[in-house]
Amino acid sequence: MKAWEATVRITHAAAKKRATTIFGGANIIGNAEEENEDQEEQVHGSGEVYHAERFLPNGDYYTGYWADNFPHGHGKYWWTDGCMYVGQWFRGKTMGEGTFSWPSGASYEGNFKSGFMDGEGTYTGPSGDTYRGSWVMNLKHGHGVKEYANGDSYDGEWSRGLQEGQGMYQWKNGNCYTGEWKNGTICGKGKMCWTNGNIFDGNWEDGFPKGNGTYKWADGSFYVGNWSKDPTEQNGTYYPSKSLLEENLEWNPQEVFNNDLKDCIICPNEKVPIWPSQKKLAVWRSSKGSDSSVRPRRMSVDGRIDTGVDKEFGRMRLSDGAVPSPSCAGAIERIRMAGNEGDDVLAGLQPDSLSTRGSPLRIPKVVKRQGDTICKGHRNYDLMLNLQLGIRHSVGRPGPCPSLDLKPSAFDPKEKYWTKFPSEGSKHTPPHQSCEFRWKDYCPKVFRSLRMLFKVDPADYMLSICGNDALRELSSPGKSGSFFYLTNDDRYMIKTMKKAEVKVLLRMLNAYYNHVRAFENTLVTKYYGLHCVKLNGPAQKKVRFIIMGNLFCSDYMIHKRYDLKGSTFGRLTDKPESEIDATTTLKDLDLNFLFRLQKTWFQEFRRQVDRDCDFLEQERIMDYSMLVGLHFRESTNDEHTPSGVLTPVDNGSLETDSVPRLSLADVDRLLLDPAGWASISLGINMPGRVERVERTNDCELVGEPTGEYYDVVMFFGIIDILQDYDITKKLEHAYKSIQYDPNSISAVDPKQYSRRFRDYVFKVFAEDT
């Protein structure tokens, strides 16, 4: 008791003074003897919830319900910088209803989840702006109403913190816009109504009329035509009302841009200096059995331990069945209490269940770059040079400006062009060091339009594939016998193709183009070019290849990758455990996670999977896969240093040729900054969680959830979409069905394959509740 009294007198003097000012000193601060009586520590069992008052070592103050050294239940936490949270907690994380206030006077009242403003809530800014509506991870997302301090208001849909979709904006002077929005600006179809009775109804872009539209006056006159801020692109017809016919008035459409829209300015969104999820909690150290050598740590409100990790954690080595040393046992307990346990599933677990479960998930410290660089002397060096020369010729060749509206003839399989590349060069081709070859472009207009649709800059495209850096060949060909090549910047993957696959793609190219154009969030592979190289010589060898996007091109390190079909036969990796690393693509029976997405993302995911599977089924495609990559956010840079029991552990890999790694702070900055959300789309850079599962038998497709959760960044998409149900696959189905369960094999009818694929995907992907 005396040691605790001395600690309180020395470390909490400043905290008492501040708490007296904020909460009222008469009820909190008394003399030393009264305080010792009030705060005399009692022995509480692990997991026991009790009311407590804490003056924390860094000067923060907490009063409310407490369990296992962390706020748990209803409580009030005050930070020394003036921020305050009052509401529900779950093991040190804001979870449920609560109110967060900033020293600037701003406040948020509503739902919290894992430390984030998430759900329905009301934010009032320091200037008086108010937003009432839906939130996802600190950002306005869903339907909401924003009332600005200057009298303007917006009622409509939001996405990633900005107006997106249908919405109505009303200015304080009475002018009103109703229609479509994109990235916080008026964009799409919409109607602007002015208080003088004038109306514009038509297309908008970046806040101004663009394209077809009609401007109507209150007296009945109207102007119909094509609108643009550039007067040279403006054209249309003015129709005066009957009362003005005799006057034959002329009117300049630019008056709308210069006068009518001059005061129709959209108020900018507020900037929040720090989000509730970024606030740190001071970890309480009980004097009962505490280790004075352990320095205090701070934990984020979303449950993450600050980067200052106790050194004793670095000495921990756990494996299945291992018994930790006494010095490590305390560290494990503290990690467990500070871990990412903010889910109802975990609430029912026994206190020691988390620390006695199997070995921690291990992830590599660095990941070796895939593939071998193709340098001079490599067997495919000449082929790479030919490919780069051909791409440079195809993309750089002058031609008409690409359009998204293509004629049916552009999709004709006969729409292909041969170009001869002699070694000495020609009128249209440069001299080169490779042998003479011929180059074929398939449907070039279509793929040029696809690159424009996918927002690929031609110069960047050529630089990635044809720059000074060589391509990398993956170490072994795929099951189909195709070879894969990666560009040096990892943006594009090049795959050699069989003639049958080329025929399938050309057959479905029109439908593919219409599908990816209609659905911006499609998960199917993005194709950028289809080509063929014919080498001169006795063999007259032809090499056909497709250029496509690399799903895993990211600043994030991919720690786990899976190829999932929803079948069981042959769906277990054949590598021994010692050879499996972060570049190994695992299969269905290797999967030991459920993937959990935020509600709005999961709903969009289900819709898009249904659309994509309907498209593939219609085109008689089967044997496709869901490729999934995971980056575990909780990992640290210290070898074997977990920041919580539910945190992956480094495997100590010492590869030198590695992929750059983002720090946890970098990841947070990308995910929490609204600007970082611009890089997030369905299947790309998606924040989420995974839950570990355990199988009761080796052939079970989806295991039982264990309640272990990990914060991750996900990547996923549908790949291998060029296998139709031809005679070969029909024979494979018939042969294997005799030996094995027909439902366990991959080669099944496209309709059955689509149904089985969806059923499986919707089991391993779930809403994060």
UniProtKB/TrEMBL annotation:
GO terms for cellular component: plasma membrane. Residues 377-765 form the PIPK domain. GO terms for biological process: phosphatidylinositol phosphate biosynthetic process. Keywords: ATP-binding, Kinase, Nucleotide-binding, Repeat, Transferase. Gene3D superfamilies: 2-Layer Sandwich, Histone H3 K4-specific methyltransferase SET7/9 N-terminal domain, Phosphatidylinositol Phosphate Kinase II Beta. SUPFAM superfamilies: Histone H3 K4-specific methyltransferase SET7/9 N-terminal domain, SAICAR synthase-like. SMART domains: MORN, PIPKc. PANTHER family: PHOSPHATIDYLINOSITOL 4-PHOSPHATE 5-KINASE 4 (PTHR23086:SF29), PHOSPHATIDYLINOSITOL-4-PHOSPHATE 5-KINASE (PTHR23086). This is Phosphatidylinositol 4-phosphate 5-kinase. It comes from Olea europaea subsp. europaea.
